[in-house]
Write a structure and sequence with these properties.
This protein is an alpha+beta fold and 205 residues long. 43% of the residues lie in helices and 20% in strands.
Amino acid sequence: VDYVKSLETPTSTLYIEQQLPVGHITSEPNGKGTADAIIVDEELHTVIDLKFGYHLIYAENNYQLKIYALGAIHRFGERDHVKVVIVQPRGNHISEFTYSLDELYLFQQEVFFKGRAAYLMAMGQMDPSYLPSPSNCKWCKGKAHCPSLANKMFELIESENDLNEGAKWVSLTRKWCDAIEERLIQELVDGKEFPDWELGIGRQG
């Protein structure tokens, strides 16, 4: 809060929890994102994102913040530059980066192309193409349903032991196993039957 207040000027306007249009950037129909804080001034937009984690995040080349910067331009009008900021109180960390309008518009073209392809794949209008990796799959909600990720898991098991490469996948492998278990339980709850599994009452505590 103190940091945000320090950036305000007599000519600026502060917007908190501001919903921004991003569908024209990501190709999602009516896509929206919410910026934690935006300061609109005559010369510069400043988009500020609050992160609570301890793992330090940086503003430079941050896709989320670049998309929000473009949303701010769409919502509040063009400026020559947009500053994006990540504030992480738990890490005593503030990261700032300023983009020119040309840089952001080039990024918008790239994101729109990728977003359009992803949307068409999700709608079944384009054959899906996946590139499983620890970073790509970390937050994906479709782990338990993804044949490409499953194939990668079995490929790692069957390949010759490469400890360096295998260690990179340990965290994601745990998440994948958890996702499969959660899917199995949910389908059992929904009434689907499996020959080797059934729901029961757990040990009473």
